[in-house]
Design goal:
The structure holds three protein chains of three kinds. By secondary structure, chain A is α+β, with helices and mostly antiparallel strands. Chain A is built from three helices and five strands. In chain A, strand 1 (3-8) and strand 2 form a beta hairpin. Chain C is of the alpha/beta class. Chain C has eight helices and ten strands. In chain C, the strands form two sheets. Chain C has an eight-stranded mixed sheet with strand order 2-1-3-4-8-7-10-9, with helices on both faces. In chain C, strands 5-6 form a two-stranded antiparallel sheet. Classes of the chains: A alpha+beta, B alpha/beta, C alpha/beta.
Chain lengths: 84, 364, 265
């Protein structure tokens, strides 16, 4: 499965592109408006989102919680410190 | 220990002796005494009794209890048995051990709630939609209500399938001495070994070992057509494999299941076939016929379904008479064994009297 | 090392993803909230039961002992599990049709018993799996395939019905309220008695498109905008209309079924 990831100082944002059904919830609900629909088309014919403003993402978890397809999720750096 | 009890009470005692520790039911004549006895007895042995809101709930809580690892039973009569059919199919599909007692009364519909009949023979065999096999036992008296209920639990545990005790109003309500045998053989379902095993992958005996909830297997159970992992699959191939096994595990091993009483058949040229409480009248009629010089015998299936290979006993008889309290639900199979087979049927309300059976035998 | 997996991956049957639910359906988000609520619990002792319908498919995606049973009969099956093994935490998950139409009788009796079950009803106001027929929660005058001239029937208020039947914990949220819903689900999982959560959700495919909504996102935003949080409101005022009253509706002390059994056996 194709996996995308973006990294900034706050952490990582991951996307399992093949799970995405293009509902647009993450894009619309993002408080920083840093996601947009990508040009990519996945195997099911949907356009997954992309993080176009990487530094603007605050790794807040709203997209993770609202995503109905368990496709997009974030991992905060400070959690990495805690787990390490 | 000999107790003077009716067949329904004997059935409840048999269930407890077999290890039944959960009963879910709904009152209905003539089976209610089973629920009443279970309500009294189960708490004494650490079990749970629940009176549910209807028969749909009764059968379902029984299946739930079975998946929590308890031996579980419900009891009902025709109208309730009809309501349970969908979930009896679920039990067959999900291979859930459970016992359903149907104390038959006359139907269709509400019919004669307090009077005997045997109209549910086909429903007990094919009542739910789709193809599956049940095991159906037919006790003929209070003692057999005890013994066959124990056997029903053992078979359901061994074959992981619903087992139906197909009783009737006379069998349930007639009080007699019942030997509540203290030593009974108990069988328990096979347990899986490691948590890696596939929950619906059968062993060579066609039965998968059964994990229960709360043991850490984290399995999935569905009434949808499923693969060996228990996951739903929409395909003709998986359907073929699964249903073939569900049918085969009963049909190919029916030698372990089938049981019957053979009475005075060795030198007989007329075979009477009867089961349940009708068999009492039929046996009496056979004895009366013998006194009159008619060489009659009785074949009494104690297991109705799967159908035993009774053809060998019947095919060389000159005459075969099937006596049952319906319009020929067992006769429809029995008539294939011998060209000269007749039916003495009825619609219930009362048993055939030995005299009436004898009259038919005399003019056969 | 950075974990590459979704934080809920261990709770999902990953080999069954992607799930069958349509784009814009609320069920996946609702299930995510439930899985978050489960975190930290002894998963070997959790059983998940569902009936038939789109919501019913949830059982196939949750990596605990899970049961996908006959239509409307999730609750009695769950009662058998719980009473036979009181160690289990048992969730029943179903749609509005499954729990309140075909299974309505079981619901009110389970609530009456205050039996230790956690019932979650995903109310999307429609029969989705069969293509969009009128449900007991479909709004008056809404268009469905079996109400082509608009729905003539008044809908149920499930949360009010739960409370009236004896449920001792009742909450209602929408799919948009992920944090609140997760918190309520956790409370319900730990509740000693009958708990009920109504999740107002969206079916864009079979309800939305026949009733003026472009997609699931528009429905999600609409239900969020119409929501009004009120804890412990007068339940007579919680019928779903222009406003959707959400919040914790009932939380009251009453001995549970199994406590009663223990007391009197």
């Amino acid at each position: 499965m194709s996996m995308k990831s973006w990294q900034n100082q706050r952490g990582f944002l991951f996307l399992k592109e093949e799970r995405c059904k293009g509902c647009g919830f993450c894009i619309d609900l993002c408080p920083k408006k840093v996601l947009r629909q990508s040009e990519v088309m996945n195997a099911k014919g949907y356009h997954p989102p992309e993080l176009y403003d990487v530094e603007g993402c605050i790794m807040c978890d709203i997209c993770t919680e609202i995503c109905p397809d368990f496709a997009i999720y974030r991992y905060r750096s400070k959690e990495r410190g805690k787990n390490a | 220990m000999l107790e003077f009890i009716n067949g329904d009470v004997a059935c409840a005692e048999g269930a407890i002796a077999a290890g039944c520790r959960f009963f879910g039911g709904y009152p209905i004549t003539p089976s209610t005494e089973i629920a009443e006895r279970m309500a009294l007895r189960l708490p004494q042995v650490g079990g749970a009794f629940m009176q549910m809101e209807d028969e749909l709930a009764s059968i379902m809580c029984v299946l739930g209890a079975s998946w929590a690892g308890k031996k579980a039973m419900t009891a009902t009569s025709g109208p309730g048995f009809s309501l349970m059919q969908e979930s009896i199919g679920l039990a067959a599909m999900t291979e859930t051990p459970c016992v359903i007692v149907d104390v038959q009364r006359a139907g269709p519909s509400t019919g004669l709630p307090t009077l005997v009949a045997q109209g549910d023979v086909m429903q007990s065999r094919f009542g739910s939609h789709g193809d599956y096999r049940t095991i159906v036992l037919a006790p003929a008296n209070a003692q057999e209500m005890y013994d066959l209920t124990i056997r029903a639990f053992n078979l359901s545990e061994r074959f992981r399938t619903p087992v139906i005790v197909l009783s009737d109003e006379v069998c349930g309500h007639i009080t007699s001495g019942v030997d509540l045998r203290e030593k009974v053989d108990i069988e328990n379902r096979k347990k899986p070994g490691s948590s890696e095993c596939l929950p619906f992958k059968a062993d060579e005996d066609l039965i998968p070992p059964m994990a229960v909830a709360g043991e850490g297997y984290r399995f999935h159970v569905t009434g949808l057509t499923h693969n060996e992992k228990g996951y739903p699959v929409t395909s003709a191939e998986v359907q073929q494999a699964l249903v073939t096994r569900l049918v085969d595990k009963v049909e190919k091993r029916k030698g372990e299941i089938v049981d019957a009483e053979f009475f005075m058949l060795d030198d007989a040229d007329m075979c009477v076939i009867a089961y349940g409480s009708e068999a009492g009248s039929a046996k009496k009629a056979v004895k009366m016929a013998r006194e009159k010089g008619i060489k009659a015998g009785l074949l009494r299936p104690k297991v109705l379904w799967p159908l035993g290979n009774f053809e060998d006993y019947v095919k060389d008889m000159k005459k075969v008479l099937v006596v049952e309290l319906n319009s020929g639900q067992f006769y429809s199979d029995a008539k294939c064994w011998n060209r000269n087979t007749k039916l003495l049927g009825g619609y219930g309300g009362e048993l055939h009297r030995p005299d009436d059976i004898l009259k038919v035998m005399e003019v056969f | 090392m950075v974990p590459q997996e979704h934080p809920l991956e261990q709770l999902l049957r990953s080999d069954r993803m992607p799930h069958i639910w349509c784009p814009g359906c609320g069920l996946g988000t609702d299930l995510g909230c439930y899985l978050r609520a489960l975190s930290g619990m002894d998963l070997d002792k959790v059983a998940f039961v569902s009936g038939i319908g789109c919501s019913g498919r949830a059982a196939g995606y949750v990596a605990v002992d899970s049961f996908h049973v006959t239509h409307g009969r999730g609750i009695p099956f769950a009662i058998g599990l719980k009473v036979a093994n009181p160690e289990l935490t048992v969730t029943v998950w179903g749609g509005d049709g499954d729990i309140f139409a075909i299974g309505g009788n079981h619901f009110i009796h389970a609530a009456r018993r205050n039996i230790e079950l956690n019932v979650i009803c995903i109310n999307n106001a429609i029969y989705g799996m069969t293509g969009g027929q009128v449900a007991p929660s479909t709004p008056l005058r809404a268009k469905t395939t079996t109400t082509p001239y608009g729905n003539y029937e008044h809908p149920f208020n499930f949360s009010y019905m739960a409370a009236a039947s004896g449920a001792t914990y009742v909450a209602r949220w929408t799919t948009a309220h992920t944090k609140e819903l997760t918190k309520s689900m956790r409370e319900a999982l730990e509740w000693k008695g009958f708990s009920f959560i109504e999740v107002i959700s969206m079916c864009p495919t079979t309800f939305g498109r026949r009733n003026g909504f472009a997609d699931g996102l528009e429905m999600l935003k609409d239900m969020k905008a119409r929501s009004e949080v009120k804890n412990f409101p007068d339940l007579e005022d919680t019928d779903i209309g222009e406003k959707i009253v959400v919040g914790k509706f009932v939380e009251k002390e009453k001995r549970s079924y199994l406590e009663e059994v223990k007391q009197w056996r």
